[in-house]
């Protein structure tokens, strides 16, 4: 395991969605002190959209979903992070968060961040009854299921969790969190 950083950092978890992916990557590129946590699908989707998962932010430590026990969660216990961002967050990830499942790297770090009282900001993908989203080669119209919208709504009630609906709200929530720390 790597030595602790000099100051706590942002943990940024990426799941397997192309919705707002480019905008999230732009935000990540502009940040200092951010480490990346990829779900298996998140790493696949990053590549499908033409990006190298290790090259998004050259200052970042990169963690991949490759072990059943999610060893990087220990970094939350020792105080490496002050904030967790999950963006973009698929309906699958949001459902698992709501149900308390922690069977992937991303859902495990969300659970552990909560247990360590580290605030989380989640950019949920399914927030509107109808939406357009980019696929790697075209724009697609989607109609999120009612259950997906319900899970997003329920996640808003979780302690230490801020759910945002778009990259602008994500950036505002992140700036607000960073100003709290100053």
Describe the protein's architecture and organization.
The chain is of the alpha/beta class and 182 residues long. The protein has one domain (9-181): 3-Layer(aba) Sandwich (Rossmann fold), CATH 3.40.50. Helix content is 37%, strand content 22%. The chain has helices at residues 21-30, 40-48, 74-77, 91-99, 105-115, 146-155, 167-181, and strands at 9-14, 34-38, 62-64, 81-89, 120-124, 131-134, 139-142, 161-164. The protein has a 6-stranded parallel beta sheet, with helices on both faces. α4 (91-99) packs across α6 (146-155). The mean pLDDT is 93.
Give a short summary of the structure.
The protein is of the alpha/beta class and about 180 residues long.
Strand line-up across the major sheet? 3-2-1-4-5-8
Fourth-tier CATH superfamily name = Flavin prenyltransferase-like
What number of structural domains do the residues give?
1
CATH architecture: 3-Layer(aba) Sandwich
Gap between N and C termini: 28 Å
Number of helices: 7
| Radius of gyration over C-alpha positions, nearest whole angstrom | 15 Å
């Amino acid at each position: 395991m790597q030595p602790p950083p000099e100051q706590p950092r942002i943990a940024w978890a990426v799941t397997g969605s192309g919705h707002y992916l480019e905008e999230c990557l732009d935000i990540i590129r502009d940040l200092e002190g951010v480490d990346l946590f990829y779900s298996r699908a998140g790493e696949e989707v990053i590549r499908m959209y033409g990006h190298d998962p290790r090259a998004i932010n050259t200052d970042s430590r990169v963690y991949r979903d490759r072990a059943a026990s999610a060893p990087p969660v220990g970094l939350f216990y020792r105080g490496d992070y002050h904030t967790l961002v999950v963006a973009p967050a698929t309906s699958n990830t949001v459902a698992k968060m709501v149900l308390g499942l922690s069977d992937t790297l991303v859902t495990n770090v969300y659970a552990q961040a909560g247990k360590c009282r580290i605030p989380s900001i989640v950019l949920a993908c399914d927030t509107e009854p109808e939406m357009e989203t980019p696929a790697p080669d075209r724009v697609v119209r989607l109609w999120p299921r009612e259950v997906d919208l319900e899970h997003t709504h329920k996640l808003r009630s979780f302690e230490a969790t801020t759910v945002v609906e778009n990259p602008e709200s994500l950036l505002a929530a992140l700036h607000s969190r960073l100003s709290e720390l100053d």
